[in-house]
Amino acid sequence: MLTHDAATKWMERWDRQQEGYLPDREERFTVLIDAVEALGRPDPVVIDLGCGPGSLSARLLERLPEATVIGVDADPLLLGLGRAAYPHVRFVSADLRTSGWTRGLGLERPVDAAVSTTALHWVSEQDLKSMYAELAGVLRPGGLLLNGDHLETDDATPVLARLERAVHDRQSERVFGANPPEDWRAWWDAVKADPDFAELDQERTTAGADHRGSESSLLSQHVGALREAGFTEVGTLWQRGHNRLLCAVRG
Length: 251
Prior knowledge:
By secondary structure, this protein is of the alpha/beta class. It has a single domain, classed as Rossmann fold (3-Layer(aba) Sandwich), CATH 3.40.50.150. The protein has nine helices and seven strands, in the order ααβαβαββαβααααββ. It has a seven-stranded mixed sheet with strand order 3-2-1-4-5-7-6, sandwiched between helices. Helix 1 (4-19) packs across helix 4 and helix 5 packs across helix 9 (219-228). The chain is globular and about 50 Å long. Keywords: Methyltransferase, Transferase. Pfam families: Methyltransf_25. Residues 46-143 form the Methyltransferase domain. GO terms for molecular function: methyltransferase activity.
């Protein structure tokens, strides 16, 4: 049985390894939540797409305790960790690549914002189009999609794309030097070796939830899919190197 205290320690370790790829992770969280808060509702309905164990969902509720935040993910282990660490967050098991994923969210009114951090690049371009189209159906007019991720521009501006990656690499070197945090694979190896996660790990294996590769890492793929889904304004709200916060407004 995974206890709250044990889950909290694993979440601290999760956050550290994520920062190894995102030295500005907390700043990006802050800007994203600033944008949700700027919508002007103390009680927004927010969907966290590909929420993992809920780092962003928990931070949203710290800032906006009256909000309804629904974390959506298909990974049983990360959802189990999140439920143990953040019992005040509502988690829903659903595959964003499967049509009808919004039906299980139990929405009582249109959604004010959908948010995501370092998750949607796992989704293929074709699945991204259908996911954004379904999302548009539950977002209110003027609602936001806020997606923080490493999004590349090699197809449009290859020189700038190289410079963006260089800026990110220099920042990482300044922050971590020769001692970066453990990487993603090391964290997963450690979790799988912990008996507390044995049942969740088996569920994860059965569900085939392990991610490989990067299916939609280009900024243009997301912009095109969002415009096709009816989002009228799409642009970068915050950026350092190729780490950016993409914002789209539902028409």
